[in-house]
Amino acid sequence: MNGKATRIDLLSFKTPQMRAFHLTWMAFFVCFFAWFACAPLMPVLKGEFGLTPNQIANINIAAVAVTILVRLVIGPLCDRFGPRKTYTGLLAIGALPVLGVAFAQNYETFLFFRLLIGAVGASFVITQYHTSVMFAPNVVGTANAASAGWGNAGGGAAQGLMPLLLATILFLGVDHTMGWRVALLVPGILMLVMAVVYWRFTQDCPEGNFSELRARGIAVSGGKGGGGWASFRAASANYRVWMLFITYGACFGVEIFIHNVAATFYVDRFGLSLSAAGMAAASFGLLALFARALGGYVSDKLAMRRGLDARSLILFVFILGEGLGLLGFAHASTATTAVAAMLVFGLFTHMACGATYALVPFIDRKALGGVAGIIGAGGNVGAVAAGFLMKGLGDLQQTLTWLGVAATLAALCAIAVRFSAEHKAQEQALYDSALAN
């Protein structure tokens, strides 16, 4: 617990804790922007490549499928190599398929690059890991939720900005076929810039970098046996991890699915223009600017008053609200009511995501990377399941209805997350120690 920040000074970049906080959400924002840059342009790409509904479904599934594997791997890598090296590597390598998709010539190459782009979605796990080792128990929920929420807003920003970027490029005289390709180069370039910034200005934990600390014989928090697969095995044996795996699939999985289909949904169902549909879809993603942080903040405050179990209870409430709100969105009859319903269920969805990772640091501190990675992968499993559900049903409204029912039932898994008296006593001691120091 040495050196962990007990408060969040938003306007400060002076401490390693606050530099990590700001640069993690910025890196996550860039990654999410790149991950979802294609989604609002799908109506254009559909015509460019002559895509069928089945091919579009495959593309949406590919966009989130590989993230499952990479999220499982990236957590233990953080334990082993530290978040600084891991994030820099992901940004630099992940930029390659982001740039590559701009050069796709047919459905097959587009699908291939879209599959590889999914790897950048693992950035979320590194973001949560880095803030978890930088902030003390009294504010770690808020720090995790705020950094993830502001980073998640990159998905919403992509929905609103990519159509505008394309329109600007076309206005400058670039032809339509080349315009979308130029627009899709921008996110890849931003990722390369962010890789350099992250390497230059962050460190792994308050005491320094993992490699330097281990060389001096100092034990690094967050890893069993020096990190790696021992962390993964310990996390996978913990039932709480799998309960949160399901709840995160219910909230983040739905969020990812909505990002991929929202613009097309508004165009096809209500006849909105590409720009109007993009702005409507962007409103869902931009809720992350405050809603995720609100979920983590509420979790922190309730835990101060009612203990660790209160974090599970508030997560149950948020996911239940999400499920009921999603059912309302699925059956909205006009674009206006659809947007209103989307904002309501979106608020609960983002708060549930924040509340989930407000719980993560308390599951198993010695296997933090494994815990964060498995639960993070659960979000993408939920998104892939939603993609296959839509492919099977062939109707978006029916898919949203069944997702609402599934989310409502998944809320019960949050209630199942309980802690022993000994575990709660240990966490209380760590909490008191952090504040005293």
From TrEMBL:
<dbReference type="GO" id="GO:0015112">
    <property type="term" value="F:nitrate transmembrane transporter activity"/>
</dbReference>
<feature type="transmembrane region" description="Helical">
    <location>
        <begin position="86"/>
        <end position="104"/>
    </location>
</feature>
<keyword id="KW-0472">Membrane</keyword>
<keyword id="KW-0614">Plasmid</keyword>
<dbReference type="InterPro" id="IPR036259">
    <property type="entry name" value="MFS_trans_sf"/>
</dbReference>
<feature type="domain" description="Major facilitator superfamily (MFS) profile">
    <location>
        <begin position="20"/>
        <end position="425"/>
    </location>
</feature>
<keyword id="KW-0534">Nitrate assimilation</keyword>
<dbReference type="Pfam" id="PF07690">
    <property type="entry name" value="MFS_1"/>
</dbReference>
<dbReference type="InterPro" id="IPR011701">
    <property type="entry name" value="MFS"/>
</dbReference>
<dbReference type="InterPro" id="IPR044772">
    <property type="entry name" value="NO3_transporter"/>
</dbReference>
<feature type="transmembrane region" description="Helical">
    <location>
        <begin position="367"/>
        <end position="390"/>
    </location>
</feature>
<feature type="transmembrane region" description="Helical">
    <location>
        <begin position="402"/>
        <end position="421"/>
    </location>
</feature>
<keyword id="KW-1133">Transmembrane helix</keyword>
<feature type="transmembrane region" description="Helical">
    <location>
        <begin position="270"/>
        <end position="291"/>
    </location>
</feature>
<dbReference type="InterPro" id="IPR020846">
    <property type="entry name" value="MFS_dom"/>
</dbReference>
<dbReference type="GO" id="GO:0042128">
    <property type="term" value="P:nitrate assimilation"/>
</dbReference>
<feature type="transmembrane region" description="Helical">
    <location>
        <begin position="338"/>
        <end position="360"/>
    </location>
</feature>
<feature type="transmembrane region" description="Helical">
    <location>
        <begin position="56"/>
        <end position="74"/>
    </location>
</feature>
<keyword id="KW-0812">Transmembrane</keyword>
<feature type="transmembrane region" description="Helical">
    <location>
        <begin position="110"/>
        <end position="129"/>
    </location>
</feature>
<feature type="transmembrane region" description="Helical">
    <location>
        <begin position="312"/>
        <end position="332"/>
    </location>
</feature>
<feature type="transmembrane region" description="Helical">
    <location>
        <begin position="241"/>
        <end position="258"/>
    </location>
</feature>
<feature type="transmembrane region" description="Helical">
    <location>
        <begin position="178"/>
        <end position="199"/>
    </location>
</feature>
<dbReference type="GO" id="GO:0016020">
    <property type="term" value="C:membrane"/>
</dbReference>
<protein>
    <submittedName>
        <fullName>Nitrate transporter major facilitator superfamily</fullName>
    </submittedName>
</protein>
<feature type="transmembrane region" description="Helical">
    <location>
        <begin position="21"/>
        <end position="44"/>
    </location>
</feature>
<comment type="similarity">
    <text>Belongs to the major facilitator superfamily. Nitrate/nitrite porter (TC 2.A.1.8) family.</text>
</comment>
<feature type="transmembrane region" description="Helical">
    <location>
        <begin position="150"/>
        <end position="172"/>
    </location>
</feature>
